[in-house]
């Protein structure tokens, strides 16, 4: 489990670096309207809504995990081979 968490952390870190690079590059007109504002201690919240659980991670500017949380999802089976999630339960 620890290996999976570390692998997920590295993947999120890589993706977040790309988001920051894109949004803070004034030459990138596609993303310039959503450029980052100057914040003294910015944090990045990542939310993963999966089929069996919802996970949230709070990262510092240096991509250090400051906090995380996970909760189970209820999967409803209204009929054989049919599975549903209730958005209100998110």
Notes on the structure:
This protein has a 3-stranded antiparallel sheet, covered by helices on one side. The radius of gyration is 17 Å and the shape is elongated. With 90 residues, it is an alpha+beta fold. The model has no long low-confidence stretch (mean pLDDT 75). It has one helix at 2-24, and strands spanning 43-49, 53-60, 65-72, 76-79, 82-84. The protein is built from 1 helix and 5 strands, in the order H-E-E-E-E-E.
* Discrete helix count: 1
Structural class category: alpha+beta
Mean model confidence by pLDDT: 75
Provide the β-strand percentage band.
Answer: 25-35%
In brief:
Helix content is 26%, strand content 33%. The protein is α+β, with helices and mostly antiparallel strands.
């Amino acid at each position: 489990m620890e290996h999976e968490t570390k692998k997920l952390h590295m993947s999120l870190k890589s993706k977040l670096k790309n988001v920051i690079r894109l949004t803070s590059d004034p030459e990138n007109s596609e993303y310039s309207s959503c450029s980052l504002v100057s914040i003294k201690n910015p944090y990045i919240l990542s939310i993963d809504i999966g089929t069996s659980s919802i996970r949230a991670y709070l990262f510092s500017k240096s991509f250090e995990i400051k906090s995380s949380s996970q909760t189970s999802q209820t999967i409803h089976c209204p009929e054989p081979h049919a599975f549903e999630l209730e958005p209100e339960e998110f």
